[in-house]
Amino acid sequence: xxxxxxxxxxxxxxxxxxxxxxxxxxxxxxxxxxxxxxxxxxxxxxxxxxxxxxxxxxxxxxxxxxxxxxxxxxxxxxxxxxxxxxxxxxxxxxxxxxxxxxxxxxxxxxxxxxxxxxxxxxxxxxxxxxxxxxxxxxxxxxxxxxxxxxxxxxxxxxxxxxxxxxxxxxxxxxxxxxxxxxxxxxxxxxxxxxxxxxxxxxxxxxxxxxxxxxxxxxxxxxxxxxxxxxxxxxxxxxxxxxxxxxxx
Length: 248
Prior knowledge:
Blueprint: H1 3-17, H2 31-44, H3 48-59, H4 69-78, E1 93-104, E2 118-122, E3 125-136, E4 142-149, H5 158-162, E5 169-172, E6 186-188, H6 198-211, H7 221-245
Parallel strand pairs: 1-5, 5-6
Antiparallel strand pairs: 1-3, 2-3, 3-4
């Protein structure tokens, strides 16, 4: 399958989910085209500048009236709420964990007054960035997500999981424990127990190797949320596409 075939198939899956959203009279791209571009950016990783050069050079015929780079980036960020349509419903057991992302090399800490990343440790290494919290169903699809600076502990994400208290039981590691007791929907799992938690490790490994998500180049919170929202939509769309191509 060529890259062009893959883009067309992704567009078809996205269009099926966004059938009820109309195109704005002044917009150059249809909503499904805009979300597809955001998903391709999340899948390719790197900077938006290099992604736009690749898209315009090789696949501009697939997207008629492709806007300028800065206008396209603003449009993708402005409509990131459309990615909520691709979130999965919680299963009986869900899995939650956080994924550290680097924004600035530690030696550059404090050089900019607009720095949004905070210092923390990732696998024993100091870094400046944030934490990407993922709540996954039993098949690895994203149910919910959130983002906080790296100096926040894992237990700061507990309120996100509590929103699904009556729908699921969430398996977490010991970093989510609280002094006053773990919230009701969370079940703390010891090491080498509950193999169901391995699904989150597989998802994070794919995000690292395929999407290069360990490093982001955005310097504004709005664009970090934009990038991560399209990463979530990308993963769920590719999961659905895989099962369309290879039904069990």
